Amino acid sequence: MTLWEASQVPVVTPDLCDQFPDVVVVEPGFRNYGGVSAFGGEVVTVKCFEDNSVVRAQVGLPGKGRVLVVDGGGSRRAALLGDMLAAQAASNGWAGLIINGCIRDVDVIGQTQLGVQALGTHPRRTEKRNQGDLDVPVTFGGVTFRPGQFVYADNNGIILSERPLTGT
Fold first, then answer.
1. Cα–Cα distance measured from residue 165 to residue 162, given in angstroms and rounded to the nearest whole number
2. Residue 90: inside a domain, yes or no?
């Protein structure tokens, strides 16, 4: 199965949990904000705190159906994603973003063909200090995400797998 095919598997996390008991479930607390409510794909990780410079750089690259998992340290003092970066991610083929932090421009993001889950919203943008790490293990929601794993998200929750789930 190609990465693109893996990102096209219908995502119903309860069914995937039933079918694949080895998946790991992320603790509840994330909310769906994107125009695509169910999404999944290969994990790319970013670790940053109140600085979305690395997020900005990544969404400018071809997403190839992957999911950008952003550990923003759970900060609720600034938004790591707004409408312009969400539009760029969608146009570059990212399946979605999961953000341990806040986003803004939620009305526009809700109309964008992109999966977006985050802890909440905040109207203030981040500072730009060019700080952050790419492709490192990140831990939040009781789970450690590693580049190359597969994540699936919908209104029921977020699950993580070591391999792509076929849905068959």
1. 9
2. yes
